[in-house]
From TrEMBL, chain B:
GO molecular function, one term: ABC-type transporter activity
Gene3D superfamilies cross-referenced by the UniProt entry: 2.40.50.100, Nucleic acid-binding proteins, P-loop containing nucleotide triphosphate hydrolases
Family note: Belongs to the ABC transporter superfamily.
Keyword flag ATP-binding: yes
Record-linked SMART domains: AAA
Biological processes per GO annotation: carbohydrate transport
GO cellular-component term (any): ATP-binding cassette (ABC) transporter complex, substrate-binding subunit-containing
Keyword list, A-Z: ATP-binding, Nucleotide-binding, Transport
CDD domains (UniProt xref): ABC_MalK_N
Domain annotation ABC transporter: ranges: 4-235
Lineage summary: Bacteria, Pseudomonadati, Pseudomonadota, Alphaproteobacteria, Rhodobacterales
Presence of the UniProt keyword Heme in the record: no
Protein name: Sn-glycerol-3-phosphate ABC transporter ATP-binding protein UgpC
């Protein structure tokens, strides 16, 4: 059988060209560069380089520092995602009970989204400053021997707190609009079918929020993996002793501070594969449980 | 089964708006009561107060002997069918129907038995494992009914359940609801703004206007013996002909229109004469004539609309009246017909209070 071919003009390609060009220049080309660089060993001054196959991968991935950063990233991302989603959901459910209409108020809440992570980090840094920081003084006043410059747990606490704080507002807005999108009569029907509001929430409201929750989970994991770079850079910078190094921050440190382009590239390639795997898992296994 | 009793029920919103202004009602066990009225009259609010979805500002509602003012909606032993069905979109038909029973900790075997039985009764047993978005409007409506039936409640509440269906399906479901209610013999309250639905479904009808019950009674009683102008104009399709008139001692007068046969009415007061379209007839010895504007053929009967040149309606326009006639009666446009009616079948109301005088 002959396939039917329709004549068409090249105009559509012209329309999508700007987007394609942006993707090629800012994503595909650097990604290709990273893969290429990850096979090279460069001298400290960048004057000569040698093709070393997988040595960069072997050297970095099996190093204690990388494993520590990977472990911290996983724990950090899990805590940040769970806490920022959980807190936002709790706040949204409570707000939804009292908030009728009040559009302006909801729009104003969205402003927190406009705060860039480095700005949030800077504000957090000031609050935890040992000399002038109120939070620093408060933590010590209530009996903790708090010093995030020295103690890895305290440092992790600070970056997690700031990361969650920055993200809760965004999640809150999405959850709130998700909740307001659930038809009132469905909630009323549930009220007549089920006495316990706790049970009602988990059997009716939460499943109906699943599309929102899934979307936010993907966004939040990405945020915790990558966007928290700015927060870590402005607060702990991976200190003390690399305890708050996330994988992204380590890529930056090794590549730009340590001038180990090859090793840093190898790490980014591994990170890329990890995120790819994570995304596949999310869409294959979790999305199945989502009812749109 | 048990009846429902409303005593001095009021609903006042925090902003002072009064939705329900004192309703007393005694609904017998097994009776089907229809609340009918224009939109915004408070009929849905009253139903939702019985359901427990709206608070009661004053007065008392009881089901059987139990006062339910403070009882939570799930423990009132009532089941409700919503206008937009309100099915749980993430559950199957079976899940939707069994949800309320599961939460009441009913044994699984009994839940299954009840769901199967109700599904058979409603002819949805083939769809039990489908999701609501795979069903048509009529099927969803049945699922919503099924969800109420399996609960085997003391009282069924229907909040305009048919208004999202197309006209044909609406008539069909109307008949089924009536049959089902007869068979199960459960006390039911049904809210609608459709007066055909109201007339056909109700054992007794409550016409609600501005948060008050204007009149309550059997549908035919309201039709033949309305207590107020509002009830007369709301019940009956086509609508009753309303003619603004004054009484001069012997006749009801509007411009050149003068109708005899009335007595003992107040003079110098604005009155409204109500004549049902089916009590008017073409009669050579009749009291007034109309110029035919339009003939609607409904198959079994014709509705003839015509202008009474000599008289004006409430807005000062030419008075337009409607006459129900046989299907053989087919006058041409602009024909002149002389109409008559038996004054004994006509109603006279005071225009200001709406009170019926005759």
């Amino acid at each position: 059988m002959k396939r039917v071919q329709f004549e068409h003009s090249p105009l559509p390609y012209l329309f999508i060209a700007p987007q394609i060009i942006i993707i090629v220049i800012f994503f595909l080309w650097p990604a290709g560069q990273a893969i290429y660089q990850s096979f090279l060993l460069e001298d400290a001054f960048g004057l000569s380089s040698k093709f070393v196959w997988f040595r960069n991968y072997k050297d970095t991935i099996f190093s204690d520092a990388w494993l520590q950063a990977a472990g911290f990233t996983i724990v950090f991302s899990t805590i940040v995602t769970v806490l920022s989603l959980g807190l936002a959901l709790l706040l949204a459910v409570k707000a939804n009970e009292v908030l009728q209409g009040a559009r302006t108020y909801k729009t104003l809440l969205m402003w927190a989204y406009a705060i860039a992570p480095p700005v949030a980090g800077l504000m957090g840094n000031l609050m935890f400053n040992p000399l002038v920081g109120d939070m620093y003084k408060f933590m010590n006043a209530i009996g903790f021997d708090f010093d995030h410059k020295l103690d890895p747990w305290d440092a992790s606490f600070v970056v997690i707190l700031i990361s969650v704080w920055k993200q809760v507002s965004v999640n809150f807005i999405f959850f709130l609009s998700g909740l307001q999108g659930i038809p009132n009569s469905v909630i009323e029907a549930a009220t007549m079918d089920c006495k316990s509001s706790f049970r009602r929430f988990w059997t009716i409201t939460f499943p109906l929020l699943a599309p929102t929750t899934f979307f936010l989970m993907v966004i939040n994991i990405t945020y915790a993996f990558f966007d928290t770079f700015g927060i870590i850079d402005t607060t702990t910078q991976g200190a003390p002793g690399g305890a708050t190094n996330t994988l992204v921050f380590k890529v930056y440190q090794d590549g730009f501070r340590g001038a180990d382009i090859g090793g840093s590239s190898a790490q980014s390639v591994v990170l890329m594969l990890m995120v790819l795997a994570l995304t596949v898992i999310q869409f294959r296994f979790i999305e199945k449980k989502v009812h749109y | 089964m048990s009846g429902v009793k409303l005593t001095g029920v009021r609903k006042t919103y925090p902003n002072g708006a009064e939705a329900i202004r004192g309703v007393d009602m005694d609904i017998q066990s097994g009776e089907m009561i229809v609340f009918v009225g224009p939109s915004g009259c408070g009929k849905s609010t009253l139903l939702r107060m019985v359901a427990g979805l709206e608070g009661i500002s004053d007065g008392e509602i009881s089901i059987g002997d139990r006062v339910i003012n403070k009882v939570s909606p799930s423990e009132r032993d009532v089941a409700m069918v919503f206008q937009n069905y309100a099915l749980y979109p993430h559950m199957t038909v079976r899940g939707n129907m069994s949800y309320g029973l599961k939460n009441r900790k009913m044994p699984k075997a009994e839940i299954d038995a009840r769901v199967e039985e109700a599904a058979k009764m409603l002819k949805i047993d083939a769809y039990l494992d489908r999701q609501p978005n795979q069903l048509s409007g009529g099927q969803r409506q049945r699922v919503a009914m099924g969800r109420a039936i399996v609960r085997e409640p003391q009282v069924f509440l229907f909040d305009e359940p048919l208004s999202n269906l197309d006209a044909k399906l609406r008539v069909q479901m109307r008949i089924e609801i009536k049959k089902l209610q007869r068979r199960m013999n459960v006390t039911s309250i049904y809210v609608t703004h459709d007066q055909t639905e109201a007339m056909t479904l109700a054992d007794r009808l409550a016409v609600i206007n501005e948060g008050r019950v204007e009149q309550m009674g059997a549908p035919m009683e309201l039709y033949t013996n309305p207590r107020t102008l509002f009830v007369a104009s709301f019940i009956g399709a086509p609508q009753i002909n309303l003619i603004p008139v004054q009484f001069d001692g012997t006749h009801l007068v509007n411009g050149g229109l003068s109708l005899a046969g009335f007595a003992d009415l107040p003079r110098d007061t604005d009155l409204v004469l109500g004549v049902r379209p089916d009590t008017l007839s073409v009669d050579a010895g009749g009291q007034f004539s109309v110029r035919v504007d339009l003939v609607e053929q409904h198959g079994g009967e014709n509705l003839i609309y015509g202008g009474v040149t000599a008289a004006k309606d409430a807005e000062g326009e030419e008075l337009e009246i409607c006459l129900k006639a046989d299907k053989e009666m087919l006058p041409s446009i602009d024909d002149s017909l002389t109409l008559g009616f038996d004054p004994a079948t006509a109603f006279v109301f005071r225009k200001d209070t709406g009170e019926r005088l005759k």
